[in-house]
């Protein structure tokens, strides 16, 4: 079975809540990309910068203080300005795109802090934009709507582990340690959550 | 066809960028071959996107926007055009082929060098320092940041057999070219194969082509035969020396 077949077959099981809601931030980002529109960029900044700062303060508490989170928020928004043209609305929502930029900025900062050798570029590993695959992209947006709707219906213990992974930046092992749970339990909670979000990973 | 994929733990930790570098390089290499896992990683990133959107906002400093705009005005903000930032999907393949054919080195032709390792090897496998281990196997260790794992490219000659060995920690293998088999099954280009501590095997490359893999080891493997065990300290010494050379790019 090819990847595309598998993604397509999902169409039949996502019967509810899959209508694609227009992304209000797409137009702003497009104007920033096309004409360096500073008014639109200000709107994006006012909405996203405080969210990015919250994300960095939660995920970087071991590395950075408040003023560092402020500086890094600027870094992320600078990248949003610089990379606006690479945003592909068929591939991801603006939320997801900005999440990946903030995520990459965070890991880049942690590596700099560790004084690691810089022989590998973070963006060579965690790409922000891959080559678009039209069929996958279409389904992508359907599944994204499912994720958005289902995320708020997850049981507390499942949304907690997802929040620890994606916002607090903790690996399965670190979550297991922190919650004093066996690794297998963390893994199965995340898998149960992913199944509800219709992210059907085989293994 | 790709039959072995990273499981939900690898993909989730990768999408949230919580995976240590050596393992992340392996997942990233697999993603270059596998559209299905790329789609999963994109969906997992959507979780991050929605969770970001639902956070309690934290006020930025009052002059934050003005400071940013003055940086942009100072030329910090060179906006990229769409052409400049769209990565070419096949770029790494082409690059690896070009470089190796220019150098006239047959063994590296057609190898899909993972994007993450291109910078490290200056585009071609022949730019790495290799340690020859017996007739059938050569190994190019690569250093990945301060990672505790051993990461290396293995090149097994067509039909070559690796010494039987036992794993003392997790091993990830991503096949970049050719195929190999062991008692558990056979693996081909793009496969992401995980072996855990306590498992022993003797991989053998298929007869028709050399097999090139990216390997990440949590702990060094333990060879089974007495002869290889005697050699082991010497092998580790050679790998360590070569690793230092491969770091100086």
Order of helices and strands of chain B: HHHHHHHEEEEEEEEEEEEH
Residue-averaged pLDDT of chain A, rounded? Answer: 81
In the CATH classification, which architecture of the domain at 111-246 in chain B applies? Answer: Sandwich
Q: What is the percentage of strand-forming residues of chain B?
A: 15-25%
What is the total tally of β strands of chain B? 12
Number of helices of chain A: 10
Shape verdict of chain B: elongated
The CATH architecture of the domain at 20-131 in chain A would be Orthogonal Bundle
Walk across the major sheet of chain B and give the strand order: 1-2-3-11-5-8
Low-pLDDT ranges of chain B:
82-109
Q: What is the oligomer described by this structure?
A: heterodimer
Summary, kept brief:
By secondary structure, chain A is mostly helical. Chain A contains ten helices and no strands. Chain B is 38% helix and 20% strand.
Describe this entry's structure for a reader.
The complex is a heterodimer of chains A (203) and B (249). Helices cover 65% and strands 0% of the residues of chain A. With 203 residues, chain A is mainly alpha-helical. Chain A has a domain at 20-131: RNA polymerase sigma factor, region 2, helix turn helix motif (Rna Polymerase Sigma Factor, Chain: A, Orthogonal Bundle), CATH 1.10.1740.10. In chain A, α3 (38-59) crosses α4, α3 (38-59) packs across α5 (94-113) and α8 (156-166) crosses α10. By secondary structure, chain B is of the alpha+beta class. Chain B has a domain at 111-246: Jelly Rolls. Chain B contains 8 helices and 12 strands. Chain B has helices at 8-15, 21-33, 35-53, 64-76, 82-85, 91-102, 115-118, 226-246; strands spanning 131-133, 137-142, 150-156, 165-166, 171-177, 179-182, 185-188, 192-195, 200-201, 204-205, 211-217, 222-223. In chain B, the strands form 3 sheets. Chain B has a 6-stranded antiparallel β-sheet with strand order 1-2-3-11-5-8. In chain B, α1 crosses α3 and α2 packs across α3 (35-53). Mean pLDDT of chain B is 80; it is low at 82-109. The chains are: A mainly alpha (203), B alpha+beta (249). The interface between A and B is large, with 89 and 76 residues.
């Amino acid at each position: 079975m090819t990847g595309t077949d598998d993604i397509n077959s999902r169409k039949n099981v996502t019967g509810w809540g899959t209508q694609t809601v227009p992304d209000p931030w797409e137009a702003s980002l497009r104007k920033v990309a096309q004409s360096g529109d500073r008014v639109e960029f200000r709107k994006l900044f006012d909405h996203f910068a405080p969210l990015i700062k919250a994300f960095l303060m939660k995920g970087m508490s071991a590395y950075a203080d408040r003023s560092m989170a402020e500086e890094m928020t600027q870094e992320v928004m600078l990248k949003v300005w610089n990379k606006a043209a690479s945003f592909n609305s068929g591939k991801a929502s603006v939320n997801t795109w900005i999440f990946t930029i903030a995520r990459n900025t965070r890991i880049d900062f942690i590596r700099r802090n560790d004084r690691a050798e810089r022989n590998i570029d973070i963006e060579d590993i965690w790409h922000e934009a891959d080559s678009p695959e039209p069929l996958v992209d279409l389904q992508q947006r359907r599944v994204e709507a499912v994720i958005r709707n289902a995320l708020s219906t997850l049981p507390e213990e499942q949304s907690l582990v997802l929040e620890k992974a994606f916002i607090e930046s903790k690996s399965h092992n670190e979550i297991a340690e922190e919650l004093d749970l066996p690794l297998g339990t963390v893994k199965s909670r995340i898998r149960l959550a992913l199944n509800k979000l219709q992210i059907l990973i085989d293994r | 066809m790709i039959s072995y994929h990273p499981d939900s733990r690898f993909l989730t930790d990768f999408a949230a960028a919580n995976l240590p570098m050596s393992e992340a390089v392996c997942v990233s290499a697999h993603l270059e071959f596998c559209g299905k896992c790329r789609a999963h990683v994109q969906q997992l990133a959507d979780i991050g996107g929605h969770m970001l959107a639902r956070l309690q906002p934290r006020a930025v400093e009052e002059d934050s926007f003005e400071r940013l705009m003055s940086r942009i005005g100072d030329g910090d903000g060179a906006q990229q055009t769409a052409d400049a930032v769209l990565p070419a999907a096949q770029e790494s393949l082409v690059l690896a082929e070009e470089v190796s054919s220019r150098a006239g080195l047959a063994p590296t032709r057609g190898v899909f060098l993972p994007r993450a390792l291109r910078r490290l090897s200056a585009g071609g496998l022949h730019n790495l320092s290799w340690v020859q281990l017996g007739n059938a196997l050569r190994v190019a260790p690569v250093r990945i940041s301060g990672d505790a794992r051993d990461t290396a490219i293995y090149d097994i000659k067509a039909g070559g057999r690796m010494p039987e060995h036992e794993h003392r920690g997790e091993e990830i293998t991503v096949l970049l070219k050719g195929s190999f088999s062991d008692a558990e099954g056979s693996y081909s280009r793009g496969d992401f194969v995980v072996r855990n501590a306590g498992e022993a095997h003797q991989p053998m490359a298929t007869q028709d082509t050399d097999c090139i893999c990216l390997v990440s080891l949590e702990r060094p493997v333990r060879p089974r035969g007495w002869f290889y065990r005697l050699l082991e300290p010497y092998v580790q010494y050679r790998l360590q020396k070569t690793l230092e050379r491969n770091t100086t790019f």
